[in-house]
Amino acid sequence: MTSGSTATSRGLARFNASQESAARTDLHEVCASSAWGSKIIAQRPFATTESLFEASDAAMAELTAEDLAEAMAGHPPIGRPKPGDPTSSREQRGMAGASEELKAEMLERNLAYQDRFGHVFLICATGASAEQMLEALTTRIGNTPEQEREIVRTELGKINRIRLTRLVEQRDAEQGDNA
């Protein structure tokens, strides 16, 4: 995270001032739900990064089951990041050093989870080890669909906050490069 609040404010100001089409594209990289992105766009400008997070959380809480499905469609299965996508590779870094046995077990349980719930197993994988992700998957497969939908909503919210932070910091870096 950027240490100075001035830098964060500059990055957020750039996001606030960006054209709607550019902001939509940026937000789609954060979360694939078009409803979520529209709710964020409608609330610009944001005074602080925290107010952006609050808007994200509120928008996430309002998503329908269909909106959640659209958001989840933007996430690859754990253990299989999108080729050439640095975001999914970075977020799933905990799987990189996993044994082939653990990766095979993760794949098998991922498929069972998808059969049960109709969507990928979604977890905020940033900072989690392969073992922690497998343990969460093993536990969550026993949830009801309603319980799992709310857990997914929470996990998406965590992912969105991380990605929004990176978005604002990226804009800080761009401004620093062009200053």
What brief labels describe this structure?
179 residues; single chain; 0% strand; mainly alpha
Brief synopsis:
The protein is mainly alpha-helical and 179 residues long. The protein has ten helices and no strands.
What's the mean pLDDT score?
86
Largest sheet: none
What's the helical proportion of residues? over 70%
Number of helices: 10
Describe what you observe in this structure.
By secondary structure, the protein is mainly alpha-helical. Helix content is 72%, strand content 0%. Helix 2 crosses helix 3 and helix 5 packs across helix 10. The radius of gyration is 17 Å and the shape is globular. The two termini are 20 Å apart.
Write the layout of secondary structure elements.
Elements lengths: L4 H13 L2 H11 L3 H10 L5 H14 L2 H8 L13 H6 L1 H4 L3 H18 L12 H11 L4 H34 L1
Helix pairs in contact: 1-10, 2-3, 2-10, 3-4, 4-10, 5-10, 8-9
